[in-house]
Write a structure and sequence with these properties.
The chain is mostly beta strands. The protein has 4 helices and 39 strands. The structure holds 2,5-dideoxy-2,5-imino-D-mannitol.
Length: 577
């Protein structure tokens, strides 16, 4: 694409249509008022021990993850000037295990006109000859609505496995931009994916977009990764879904193979996943479907946005991205867990935003949903296992798990259901699991459940973040509800204490019910049904901090259940500088 920047600027100015809303965490008016250049206070209770976060300031989306010459690279949206969102540059950290991270110089700083007012999200692609390239969104006019173009960045030194320095080739950038011809709305055109190549030798990349309220993934093709031509049709679009941020598109092997597929893999052994981060709801939803490479079109198996829409995570998890880790043949999922604290509390903390624990993802054996599990490397932080022997847990009782550092722990528990006599009937009108979890919170006694874990709990249970199951009897099956209830997570009245919930597609009688919670000071990531459903919660206890945090198994339902396995580990601090 020939780049005449003055023509581009003019087109953009002429192209402005109706003023569109921008990403909802983009608070232009707050940028100058909320700014903390001071270091965060020592012994701050909410800083995590093994979740990725830089020393200070605001972070959001993970960007451009990749493995290069044996080193994992994580870039991220970063505001070096404060604890609220501000025009981002890219932070950069490297690792050999995705657990311990070393900082590298900030990159994608304002360099040319095509990223002068900020470098928003983007992705890495490894080009033939093992040459990484990054496509990301540059902001060329900040007001009134952050006009967006797509830029190409390349490493300065391919011999440096840490890829410390990047540059934006001036003669090529931007490589994709709105024009009067393509009618792309310049305020809703962002977040290019990792590219994939089809046998015709052309790269394909998706860019998030919306037309009025119809969200979509625009597709661009290129032979040389520099000159990009927009495809006539988006890969997929959906009415009233609003702006699609951070789209992702990748193959997964069928029938429960944990092995990941390289992004360009096609054929009868794989299905494809299309994910969109919906700006309107801040949900990362995905579909599993078929990619017709002749038509270059995607068809989801069960529609796009409906009652059975799937989410990676039913709590705090947004703007995620996957990459193929060819060293271990797996696909890794990374996401951003925003704070639930106020902007004023973030200034006191000196930081805002963490990343979720990296997860391996694969398609389940029935090709219906993805399974997610924390990367095995995270287990290197575990201390000695503490095991609670198999036992029954009666209704209205708790069992404390002692002998671990409960504020920074990995806890795994499995339940067997023994008594079905008091199971409640499922009402088919209960279609919203999150609402059901809010109505039937931790203290509401049920027939079978709630049972699960009270995490980040104070000794007297004045505070806790509860993660639990309830089981109901529907027409021909049992329905399992999984909840994460934050309503008593903190005595600080200003934190967001929304309760999250989802149904888990398991047979609780035949398979039992398992839960794994990664607890880390102000975050609890809960994996239900062996990774079929995941919920991330943020919590800011005022009593249950450091040594005063406890973890309990509990059953507040009227029927007993059996704990068949309960193993807990203290988690060491990861080295994240
Ligand atoms: N965050 C970035 C955008 C993206 C949004 C800006 C998603 O590129 O759409 O910080 O959180």
């Amino acid at each position: 694409m020939a780049s005449s920047l003055s023509f581009l600027l003019l087109s953009l100015i002429l192209c402005y249509g109706v003023v569109q809303l921008q990403a909802s965490h983009v608070y232009n008016h707050l940028q100058s008022t909320i700014s903390s250049k001071i270091s965060p206070p020592a012994n701050e209770p909410y800083r995590t021990g093994y979740h990725f976060q830089p020393v200070k300031n605001w972070i959001n989306d993970p960007n451009g993850p990749m493995l290069y010459k044996g080193i994992y690279h994580l870039f991220y949206q970063y505001n070096p000037n404060g604890t609220a969102w501000g025009p981002p540059v890219w932070g950069h950290s490297t690792s050999t295990d995705m657990v311990n991270w070393s900082p590298q110089p900030l990159t994608m700083q304002p360099e040319i006109l095509a990223n002068r007012y900020g470098s928003w999200s983007g992705s890495a692609t490894i080009l033939p000859g093992n040459k990484p390239a990054i496509l990301f969104t540059g902001i060329i006019i900040p007001q009134p609505q952050n006009s967006q173009v797509q830029d190409l960045a390349l490493p300065k030194d391919l011999n440096d496995p840490y890829l410390k320095e990047w540059y934006l080739p001036t003669k090529n950038n931007p490589v994709m931009f709105p024009t009067p011809q393509n009618q792309i709305n310049s305020s809703s055109f962002r977040d290019p994916t990792t590219a994939w190549m089809l046998p015709d030798g052309k790269w394909r990349v998706l860019v998030g977009n919306k037309r009025a309220t119809r969200g979509m993934a625009l597709m661009f093709r290129s032979k040389d990764f520099v000159n990009w031509v927009q495809a006539k049709h988006p890969l997929y679009s959906y009415p009233k879904s609003g702006m699609w941020e951070c789209p992702d598109f990748y193959p997964v092997y069928k029938n429960g193979k944990i092995m990941g597929a390289e992004t360009s893999a096609i054929g009868s052994l794989v299905k494809h996943v299309l994910k969109a981060s919906l700006d309107d709801t801040k949900h990362d939803i995905y579909t599993i479907g078929s990619y017709d490479t002749k038509r270059d079109a995607y068809t989801p198996d069960v529609g796009f946005m409906n009652a059975s829409s799937l989410r990676y995570d039913y709590g705090k998890f947004y703007a995620s991205k996957t990459f193929f880790d060819y060293s271990k043949n797996r696909r890794i999922l990374l996401g951003w867990a925003n704070e639930s604290s106020t902007a004023a509390d973030d200034v006191i903390k000196g930081w805002s935003g963490i990343h979720n624990t990296p997860r391996t993802i694969w398609l389940d054996e029935h090709n219906k949903q993805l399974i997610q599990w924390p990367i095995s490397e995270i287990e290197s932080l575990r201390g000695k296992p503490v095991k609670v022997p198999r036992r029954e847990i009666k209704g209205r009782s708790t069992v404390e798990v002692t002998g671990i550092t409960a504020v920074q722990a990995d806890v795994s528990i499995s339940f067997k259901i023994k008594d079905l006599t008091k199971v409640e009937k499922f009402d088919e009108k209960w279609t919203d699991p999150q609402l059901l979890c809010s109505v039937k919170g931790t203290t509401v006694k049920g027939g079978l459940g709630p049972f699960g874990l009270l995490t980040l709990a104070s000794k007297g249970l004045e505070e806790y973040t509860a993660v639990f199951f309830r089981v109901f009897k529907a027409h021909k099956k049992f329905v399992v509800l999984m909840c994460s209830d934050q309503s008593r997570s903190s005595q600080n009245p200003t934190t967001d204490k929304t309760t999250y919930g989802t149904f888990v597609d398991v047979d609780p009688i035949a398979e039992g019910l398992s839960l794994r919670a990664l607890i880390d000071h102000s975050v609890v990531e809960s994996f239900g049904g062996k990774g079929k459903s995941v919920i991330t919660a943020r919590a800011y206890p005022t009593l249950a901090t450091f040594k005063n945090a406890h973890v309990f198994a509990f059953n507040y339902g009227s029927s007993s259940v059996e704990i068949t396995e309960l193993t807990a580990w203290s988690m060491k601090k990861a080295k994240i500088a």
